[in-house]
């Protein structure tokens, strides 16, 4: 009986934590980091501030958890990429994730804000994309090219211009043709 009660409370804590991440993502997305409060996150779910503090001791801890959650999901998606020929498909899948999930949108936004404020590095998924593009290259020019391509990609998917997923996909297709990545994928496919 105690094991079942313990599992139920563990499951309840896990679900509450997930709901808090979703609520925090929406709060960060609408209010920005500076104006977001733990009380605002709690209010979205009808919980107390103390419940939020039980799971995340500070707003910074909540932010960092959301950034990590986002990075893990994006790394998992990039790990499905089998090379340059698969690159466009993976970018489209990440764009879809960004469009559909506030936690992804907020995680990227929060990382960008934190990186500017603290001069932090790149997220792991960005480094994984760079490896797909240029392999294990120590060439500074390739690193600059990859960084530019990734920054442009993030700007495309984060734009508020797209009214629906179809417009986002059209913008992504344009980005791929503009950067030559769609042609590189075609050439790579033809070599196989």
Automatic annotation (TrEMBL):
Lineage here is: Bacteria, Bacillati, Actinomycetota, Actinomycetes, Bifidobacteriales
> Organism's domain of life?
Bacteria
Q: Which GO terms describe its molecular function?
A: DNA-binding transcription factor activity; transcription cis-regulatory region binding
Could you tell me which Gene3D superfamilies the record lists for this protein?
A: Tetracycline Repressor, domain 2
Which InterPro entries does this one have? Homeodomain-like_sf (IPR009057), HTH-type_TetR-like_transc_reg (IPR050109), HTH_TetR (IPR001647)
Q: Which Pfam families match?
A: TetR_N
The protein's UniProt keywords, in alphabetical order, are: DNA-binding, Transcription, Transcription regulation
Report the leader peptide range.
Answer: none
Residues annotated as DNA-binding are 37-56
Give every HTH tetR-type domain span: 14-74
Under which name does UniProt file this protein? TetR/AcrR family transcriptional regulator
Q: Supply the source organism for this entry.
A: Bifidobacterium callitrichos
